[in-house]
Amino acid sequence: MPRIVDSADVSDAATIGEGSSVWHLAQVREDAVLGQNCIVGRGAYIGTGVVMGDNCKVQNYALVYEPARLGHGVFIGPAVVLTNDHNPRAVNPDGTIKSAHDWEPVGVTIEDGAAIGARAVCVAPVTIGAWATVAAGAVVTKDVPAHALVAGVPARRIGWVGRAGARLVADEADPTRFTCPLTGATYRLTNPDTLEMEETE
């Protein structure tokens, strides 16, 4: 069974997977779907209809606005914000308060294994590729390739990371080949924006 603490606000219309935990003061809105073994930290917000895969971690006070889509094994650091509006306004041009019918939400997509560092902001619509890492405090305004390490405002690629999360080391003799210093796994740059893990024999 999922574990939901008494102070959490979880809609009856949300689906919480087996083994997942929702901690103090977190809110999970209507029609949100959390996979198995997910963790939603203190004060985090999961918006209406957000979909999360298995084994995701959403740390304290992160804001995951609909219609975000998270793959399996995604890490969302403390106070991260995934936005959902191209042109945010509280009012329409005539001064009337905007309602839910006056704008169309756009989402952030985060693919399997990717990690978003503390206080980073992903400005929708963007896609964060599988196993990529967004550095703490970065502001992402463009799609991030798989395995890319991005940092800064706006975020730019500063390197590559492997599945273990460590920055990859380039081979001095072959600049298209990279090695993970933690696992020894090797990766190959097949074009400027595509890094692929090499098969082990």
User: What is the approximate shape?
Assistant: globular
In the CATH hierarchy, the third-tier topology of the largest domain is known as UDP N-Acetylglucosamine Acyltransferase, domain 1
Write the CATH homologous superfamily of the largest domain.
Answer: Hexapeptide repeat proteins
Question: In the CATH classification, which architecture of the largest domain applies?
Answer: 3 Solenoid
Question: How would you explain this protein's 3D organization?
Answer:
With 201 residues, this protein is mostly beta strands. It has 2 domains: 161 residues, Hexapeptide repeat proteins (UDP N-Acetylglucosamine Acyltransferase, domain 1, 3 Solenoid); 38 residues, no CATH class. Helices cover 0% and strands 32% of the residues. It contains no helices and 26 strands. It has a 9-stranded mixed β-sheet, with no helix packed on it. β21 and β22 form a beta hairpin. It is globular, with a radius of gyration of 18 Å. The model has no long low-confidence stretch (mean pLDDT 96).
